[in-house]
Amino acid sequence: MPIDVLQLTPLIAAGDEDLHRNYSVCRWYDLPDRERWLDEHNASIRAVITAGHLGISNEMFRRLPSLGLVAIAGVGYEKVDLDAARERGIRVTNTPDVLTNDVADLAVGLMIATMRQIAAADRYVRDGRWIAGEMDLAARVSGRRYGIVGFGRIGQAVARRLEGFGGSIAYTSRTKKQSPHAFHSTVIDLARESDVLIVTVAAGPATRHLVGRAVLDALGPTGFLINVARGSIIDETELIAALQDRRLAAAGLDVYADEPRVPPALSALPNVTLTPHIGSATVDARLAMARLMLANLDAFYAGHPLPTPVV
Ligand code: 8YV
C-alpha cells in the first residue's frame, strides 16, 4: 500500500488513532533503515506531519518529489523553509490559538516558580534541609514591572494574566498594537524598564539571539528572564555567564538552543528553573493540536481550503 503520510514525530495526543484510521502513515522516527525506506517510498509521500520546534529539513524536502503538505502540530514554523515550500507549491499549516492559553499559563507559572524558587523549595523539603532552618527569602512576584518580548497571541495572553498581578506591563513587538500597555520599540529599552522579561516572540533569523549580553545587562542583577518561545532567541552562552556572575538574578526556561540537550553549565546553576519544552504539553492542547492538524490534512486530501494555512 502506498504511504500517504510521513510522520516525523509522535503526536502526544489521541490524534494518532484518527490519523492512522484514515491514512497509511509511516512513523519516520520508528524506521530502522530510513535511507532504504526513503529510496523505496519517497515518490508516494504527499504529506508530512511534524512538530513546531522540529519542522522539516531542506534535505527531506528535496527527497520527497510528490510532497504537497507540511502539517505542523504546533504554532512555530521557523524550521520550515517557507520560500522553498512556495517555490514548489507545497502548502504549510500550523495549529495556532488552540495552545495559546496553555503556553501563557506556563509562562506565568514559570515566572512564579523562578521568582519564588518553588523547585528549590521542593528539593529543600525533600532533602530534609528545613529541619536546619528556613530557606533564603525570595523576590516578590506581584506589583513588579513586567516586560513581554513579542506581543502576538501568546504575549497578549500573558499580559491578560499579568493584569491580575498589579504593577506595570510593557511590551516590544515589530509594530505597536492596540493595547493599554506601554510599547517599547526595542528589547533593550523594554529590558531597562522591566524587573521580569518574558520571551514569547516567534523564532526566526530576525530574532536569533535577540536577548544577548546588552539586553541581559539592561535587565540587570535584580532582573528575571522567562523564555517559553524558542531557545534560539536567547544567546545561551551569555545567559549562563550572566547567571554565573549574578549579573542576572535568575531565569526560568522551557526552551533551549539544542533541545533536548541542556548545557551542564546551565543545569548546574542554582538560579534557574528548567522545564522540558512543555508549554503546549497539556492533554487538552495536544488533543486540539492533533485534531486541527488532522483537519488540515483532511482538507488537503479533499481539495478543500485549509483551516490554518501558513503558506
Ligand atoms: C511543540 C511548540 O512544537 O507549538 C510550538 O511551536 O513549540 C510546541 O507546541 C510541541 O512539540 C508540539 O508540536
TrEMBL record:
Q: Carries keyword NAD?
A: yes
Q: Which Pfam families match?
A: 2-Hacid_dh (PF00389), 2-Hacid_dh_C (PF02826)
Keyword Plastid attached: no
Q: Which UniProt keywords apply?
A: NAD, Oxidoreductase
Q: Where's the D-isomer specific 2-hydroxyacid dehydrogenase NAD-binding domain? A: 108-279
Give the InterPro entries listed for this entry.
D-isomer_2-hydroxyacid_DH, D-isomer_2_OHA_DH_cat_dom, D-isomer_DH_NAD-bd, NAD(P)-bd_dom_sf
D-isomer specific 2-hydroxyacid dehydrogenase catalytic domain mapped to chain residues: 40-310
Query: What family is it from?
Result: Belongs to the D-isomer specific 2-hydroxyacid dehydrogenase family.
Supply the name of the protein.
Lactate dehydrogenase-like 2-hydroxyacid dehydrogenase
Q: Which organism is it from?
A: Labrys wisconsinensis
Q: Could you read off the lineage of the organism from its UniProt record?
A: Bacteria, Pseudomonadati, Pseudomonadota, Alphaproteobacteria, Hyphomicrobiales
